[in-house]
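Ticket reopened. Same input as before:
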Amino acid sequence: MTNFPIDKIRLDFPILQRKVNGKPLVYLDNAATSQTPKQVIDCIVEYYSLYNANIHRGVHTLSQEATDAYEAAREKIRVHFNAKHREEIIFTSGTTEGINLVAHGFSKRLKKGDEVIVSALEHHSNIVPWQMMCEETGAKLRVLPMLPNGELDMNAYADLVNANTKLVFVNHISNALGTINPIKQIIEKAKKVGAAVLIDGAQAAPHIKADVQDLDVDFYVVSAHKMCGPTGVGVLFGKKTWLEKLHPYQGGGEMIDQVSFEQTTYAGLPHKFEAGTPNICGGIAFGAAIDYMNTIGFEAIAQYEHDLLVKATQALLEIDGLKIYGTAKEKTSVISFNIEGIHPYDIGTIVDKLGIAVRTGHHCAQPIMDYYKIPGTVRASFAFYNTFEEVEALVQAVKKAKEMLS
Amino acid sequence: MNTIKEIQEEIVDEFSMFDDWMQRYEYMIELGKSLPLIEEQYKTDDYKIKGCQSQVWVHADFQDGQVVFTADSDAIITKGIIALLVRSFSHQKPEDIIAADTQFIDEIGLKEHLSPTRANGLVSMIKQLKMYAIAYQAKANN
Ligand SMILES: Cc1ncc(COP(=O)(O)O)c(C=O)c1O
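Engineering reply: fixed in the latest deploy. New output:
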């Protein structure tokens, strides 16, 4: 990739200037959380410096300004994901809350004999809330299996879907392996039997611009902190028809229409699902993060990250005994690997000493680790602000760790 | 027999010879590799401390008024630190083990490994060593 403005982009991220253990930071844990550009940091500073106030309630100027900015962010997010209505964008504290909100809603709707399908590639966040829902309702949790290369077994999926299937939940991209799942196909098939589909877009949002209308998806959940925004805020997209049917998740202020001790009526969408004072600044900064990423452009990002992935994959595979888990044809810039005879924790510890941040462990996806019969992996995940020099630094550090540990 | 304090000072002394982290880690990795720390029969779930990322096994015995520890880990750096901990705590009287601290790990520049959030099982392991000492002390006093 020749004209990707990487030098200019890196200047936007103050944290990339810092040193770790005396070495320049090489941040390759982007799948866990992304770094924050100054455009987003400025937005946060500006909020607290100029118009911090509670929203949707005051008539005073600050409250009005904060409300306008918050709702403008909702609109930006709507446009970004191409949702039809602004009420379909629910602010949450993140992907996890979005999933719990939907699972809670379905706890009131499912019954014994109903079936729900989860993929083998899920993050614990997209497993546990549904297990709780199944316990409550008696619905049966069925698992869409994976193949050795980290792709989903779509033939098995065809057999799993039946007239009892009520819900399917799959991630768009696997955080542990980087596999891009064929969600369009998954959704189409589920629609044929009238099942609803939730897509966990936490890992996809920083790489792919999802179009929820084109996908015809019922629910799509994301976290801001994976896409250059702050922690503790995210969005649930839900089709209006579904959100109107689902029971509220939490009770409190903001989500009501009329309250008396005899009866409370709920507010309309999206407020019905937004009880209490939200992360106002976070929501506004999420909007700024989306603006920032769109300015760079998702196509350019995808192309550049793909080049990083190819280079890193080739160079790492030259190391003797190194095995990459997750070799799907369609994958994002995530490399999960182990070196024969060496514990991933040891590799993570040594490369950290060399200034390189990778993640080690099971990546909140223990079923995948069980599938491969390993305790965990080392995971390097690249973002558009990483460089080819950093790829090389990773490779050298892994070589050094191997030399020390074997 | 040296006291726990003396052994820990000895370790701090040994580590002062190293110029940088790499030498310290190479030494720990050597320790981790060279020591057969626990008998295979104790490498079971009963003796396991779940550390999330690396696993740790601990076994204790009581001989002539002293607690004898053996321990192991599947990650070599964790195992190196275990070697240091076992060296200072094993073959000591229960009351001395209960009263001892692990400040020496900070002094040799390995503090981060004993952070409660590190998920390597070491903090739980130290708790476990002390629990064994408390149990043997109670037994001895009965
Ligand atoms: C695929 C996937 N789903 C869900 C989550 C949970 O996101 P959050 O912790 O922001 O709620 C993550 C984050 O690691 C993820 O990668």
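The two ends of chain A are 36 Å apart (CA to CA). The first strand of chain A starts at residue 19 and ends at 20. Please confirm and we'll close it.
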